[in-house]
Amino acid sequence: MFENVLSVMIFLPILAGLALLLFPVGKSGSRLTGFIVSVIIFMFGIELFLDFTGNGGMEYAVNRPWIDSLGISYSLGIDGISLLVLLACSLLFPLIFAVYSGKTKGYYANLLIAQGAMLGAICATDIVLFYIFWEIMLLPIFFMIGLWGGEKRLAATLKITIYTIAGSLLMLAALVYVGVSYHSQFGAWSFNIADLRNLDLSGGFAVTAFIMFMIAFAIKIPLFPFHTWLPDAYTEAPTSTTFVLSAIMAKIGVYAVIRFVIPVFEIEFARFALLLSLAGVVGMMYCGLAAITQKDFKRLLAFSSASHMGIIALGVFCMNIQALTGSLFQIVAHATSTGILFVFAGLIEERMQTRNIADLGGIAYRAPIFATFFAIAMLASVGLPGTSGFIGEFLIILGAVKFNAFIGFLAGTALIIGVCYMLWMFQRLFFEKSNTKTEGFKDLSLLETVTFLPVILLILFMGIYPQPFLQKIEPAAELHVAGFTTMTVTETVAETVVPAQEHDTHHKN
Amino acid sequence: MNDFLSLLPLIIICSGGIVLMLLSVLETMKTETASYISLGFFGIAFFIQFLIACYPESDLFAGTFSSMLVANSFTGVAGLIILGAGFFTVMSCHTYFQQNKVCTVEFYSLLLFASCGMILLTLARELITAFISLEIMSLAIYILVGYDRKRVTSTEALLKYLMLGAFAGAFFTMGAALVYGAAGSTRFVEISNYISSNSAATPLLIGGAFFILIAFLFKVAAFPFHAWVIDVYDGAATPVTGFMATALKAAVFTVFANFLAINGALQKEWITFLFYIALFTMFGGNLIAIGQSNIKRMLAASGIVHSGYLLIGLIAISTKSFTGSVIAYYLAAYAVGTLGIFAALSYLGGKNESRVSFDDFKGLAKVRPYSAAAISVFLLSMAGIPPTAGFMGKFYIITSAITEGQIALAVFGVISSILSMWYYLRLIICMYFNEAEDSFEIEKSPFAPACTFILAVCVFAIGLYPIVI
């Protein structure tokens, strides 16, 4: 692969999106442009994945100074941690353009800009650059929900925007604090994560900064109790936006915790890990229970997605290699399964003009291919062995038990809730009574079948033979966890010394 | 020769003002011609200022002026902002006065005189010079605010501004007198020497600095001297409001920073005081802005909030190696966004400024997508969303605040920007998420729209290539 492939992947969709906005292009023309661009990105993504050597370090690294006086650089890179997130972000977009027609050109332009910004956030290794892409990511979402959303779109838009902007502005203050601390400790400015990991932060401000970072990412993931924007936004957004939000954007929140928070705030992270993993588990249970009671299947999927994000986040907070690898694997697994489920939900809504579970039933008799695909995606989502979801969730639960048996037990229990609502929903939608309303339900067309088939195959492939993926993640995850454990050990030693000294001085006084 | 070059923009602008004043007696002189002439003067002066903007610090004609005027890169950038603001204001005026026929040739002459006072103010390193330039600027601005004599709001704005502004001027003279009484000189260098050998906490110096600070705080509309700004901005013609909000603020903040940076001891004395002023300015401004339904009034209130951010920058200036780059950058970023939105309002406002409230701009994106997009860019820049200039400005302000140990202030600044999202987003929501009720007919003059789009590009250019820093 050529040298600047990451820059091309980031800016090609952004520029294409801006060009679509500026020039008079028709509906189908813009959809075609979007499709072509996303296919190009798709090719790059595949190529990148195959060429990736997986030795644990940064590959395809670019590092150019941007604002010298503050040490901000345009630096990009991909390692085992970001690889699968990048893959999810580049693989799934062609599908959106292929399936959804009938939106205006502004919508496709916004989708492209969102993709570019997300790729930027995934590739950035400079924290300021990351922040910039992170914020740009929100703008297309804002317009997509606000302009093309459902009936209560305005409230949903405001909710998600105010939530995420509040979070990210707090993060801005925190990241400036980190940069300034680096300057005062090393005498030079840098916002590059490779430098920042050498930082030694402690004290009240460090804890505050850590909490600010975590709030920003917790809102995006969304982690309990910062999830309240999610049901509204996911339900009101057009299906493809929900797809982007749940399949990719939420993952970037988890990814950012791994990439930027853990290396800088090892001590604080270790201190809060138990609390955070509890938040993850409670979120899983709460959202799972909420999902059972939903009457609207898109809302049900929204809660289910939030519930599964809880387990992915839990994997990160367990701080061991199994859980971290599981989380990174589950990021792709969840992106494919939940993403597909949302797309299917959108198809049902488009064909039946309703999202009410009670109105539907017996779809399986009319549309066997559709039902089969749906079933596979759903089973992957609940983690049936043989599907991609099993590998990830198994590794996470394994790591969780190792971390804290109680948390592991709770997480395992929460998974059962997932099976409950999913299977029940499937039964009500696809079997049960033969409904007169679903009489005319058309099965997937050939084009749609061909579009979805690769993703369904990927779900099965990842479940049966996960080695190629795990191989590429593990070295980087090991490096991450290794740096982390040595740091905590030395720090625990240091901590035991410090209070003793304080005590002494106090005594003398 | 360098001295002369540094002074040249000032001379050009001043002579431009005089030329236009003389030309205004001709009956054949049209206001449009006057606007072209002043565009020319602003353009040439801007170009020269651009060439000299990054010179190291030098006293201008040290012998003749006895170090009353000092030029450096900070004043250079401030001058650029003022001249740029002047240039774009003339462009918006050109369109604005086709819809609101109240203009005469003297208008442009006064605009040039005001800029002349502002540039002099940035160069001033002496209290009397500062006072004189402050008054040159203020007198011209008073007339510009009340230019539309038939409109009641305009006259009301003029009266308020004139009365209060005169008081502020009086405070400044009082302060200057007291400082002179303490330090025995009005030159900043001498005052600094005095503080170094004595204490900054003598009663005369405290009192003098207090009065001077009050005058500055009034001019930049900081709490608790912010009450005038809403009515004055609302009453003035839209381009004039844009000019006041940007150029005037840039000039006053420059001299404010220069004054505070006289000596570290002086700044230390006032840090706590300024801390609370900045805090109340940000949150007071936000509270006022949230309640507004008129866009100009909202922008006036958001201008107060931005003054608060700039005050954070002032608190965090390091007096040891003062370059002013953070303040200059923030001023530039703020000026680009504010000028842009006022330029857009000048051509979208309609006859006699008929479109003023949030509701009047409903559905603008459906009818005029490019204008709506440009306005959104400016609003996002003011809100500090990357990759715009406003984000970078805020980033530098927060960085400098944390570097100087003012972490609390940095956090309050961030919380204030979260609050400010409310009213910036509200306008975007009005423009995009509603159906158009108005056809947004405008006069066909290309100047203000061109100006809007140039500035929209500038927002990104300044944001992505922050050369000043």
From TrEMBL, chain A:
Single GO term (MF): NADH dehydrogenase (ubiquinone) activity
Main location: membrane
Residue stretches spanning the membrane: 6-25, 32-52, 72-99, 128-148, 160-182, 202-223, 243-262, 274-293, 328-348, 369-391, 403-424, 444-465
Domain NADH:quinone oxidoreductase/Mrp antiporter transmembrane: 124-413
This protein's UniProt keywords: Membrane, Transmembrane, Transmembrane helix
Membrane topology label: Multi-pass membrane protein
Record protein name field: NADH:ubiquinone oxidoreductase subunit M
Species, as recorded: Desulfomarina profundi
From TrEMBL, chain B:
Annotated GO MF terms: NADH dehydrogenase (quinone) (non-electrogenic) activity; NADH dehydrogenase (ubiquinone) activity; quinone binding
Membrane-related topology note: Multi-pass membrane protein
Protein EC: 7.1.1.-
Catalytic activity of the protein: a quinone + NADH + 5 H(+)(in) = a quinol + NAD(+) + 4 H(+)(out)
Subunit-structure text: NDH-1 is composed of 14 different subunits. Subunits NuoA, H, J, K, L, M, N constitute the membrane sector of the complex.
Recorded superkingdom: Bacteria
An example Gene Ontology biological process: ATP synthesis coupled electron transport
Protein name per the record: NADH-quinone oxidoreductase subunit N
Family matches, as InterPro entries: NADH-Q_OxRdtase_suN/2 (IPR010096), ND/Mrp_TM (IPR001750)
The NADH:quinone oxidoreductase/Mrp antiporter transmembrane domain, residue ranges: 124-420
One Pfam family hit: Proton_antipo_M
Assigned GO CC terms: endomembrane system; plasma membrane
Top-level taxonomy: Bacteria, Pseudomonadati, Thermodesulfobacteriota, Desulfobulbia, Desulfobulbales
Swiss-Prot/TrEMBL keywords: Cell membrane, Membrane, NAD, Quinone, Translocase, Transmembrane, Transmembrane helix, Transport, Ubiquinone
Function: NDH-1 shuttles electrons from NADH, via FMN and iron-sulfur (Fe-S) centers, to quinones in the respiratory chain. The immediate electron acceptor for the enzyme in this species is believed to be ubiquinone. Couples the redox reaction to proton translocation (for every two electrons transferred, four hydrogen ions are translocated across the cytoplasmic membrane), and thus conserves the redox energy in a proton gradient.
Subcellular location as annotated: Cell membrane; Endomembrane system; Membrane
Gene that encodes it: nuoN-1
Family: Belongs to the complex I subunit 2 family.
Transmembrane parts of this sequence: 6-26, 33-53, 65-90, 102-121, 127-147, 159-183, 203-228, 240-261, 273-291, 298-317, 329-349, 370-387, 407-425, 446-468
